[in-house]
């Protein structure tokens, strides 16, 4: 379920609210590389490689644009849920359809691969960050670590508080979930006011991790939650603008 996030505030319903080398070619020599291989002595090869990079980026950008359009069209909104005045953003259709689920992970992999260093750990927030965080981590060749509500994780834990609409709540991570110096990406379904994501970032840094950035499926832009975050923020979709 999505929409009312732990750090979100009520939203009026009428608000516009990703080794074995081949045998050498029979005609190849040290001074004449095989025809399918570029000659390392020619600087023109560097220029050819550079010409290919913008084309690859353009292709990835076009693919990402198509994916986000399909994903955006699949979201649902429910006015006055779970209480009057709140417009609930439902992301569950993205997981009900295997093709949409694949589109979601592919879109996130595309963005992360093009814009961040390879993470060592993907950290997912309780609870909807668990829906796609492990799949994203697997595709990126990274580990996955959960951030949970206080009292849900065994063993030594680090704790961080964050503000909710009424009072405070607490997140925890196991003390060995992130090793000092590891590169970490924090993921969640929605960024609203940004309090819970900021707490997650602080936990990563307490454990000695290097925070690469935050990735969300959906952003409620009018709440300006990204202003609370101290690392690059990427949201795949935007809602209630």
Automatic annotation (TrEMBL):
Gene: APT1
Record-given protein name: adenine phosphoribosyltransferase
GO cellular component, one term: cytoplasm
Keyword Flavoprotein carried by entry: no
Gene source species: Didymosphaeria variabile
Family annotation (PANTHER family): ADENINE PHOSPHORIBOSYLTRANSFERASE
EC number: 2.4.2.7
Lineage: Eukaryota, Fungi, Dikarya, Ascomycota, Pezizomycotina
Pathway: Purine metabolism; AMP biosynthesis via salvage pathway; AMP from adenine: step 1/1
UniProt catalytic activity: AMP + diphosphate = 5-phospho-alpha-D-ribose 1-diphosphate + adenine
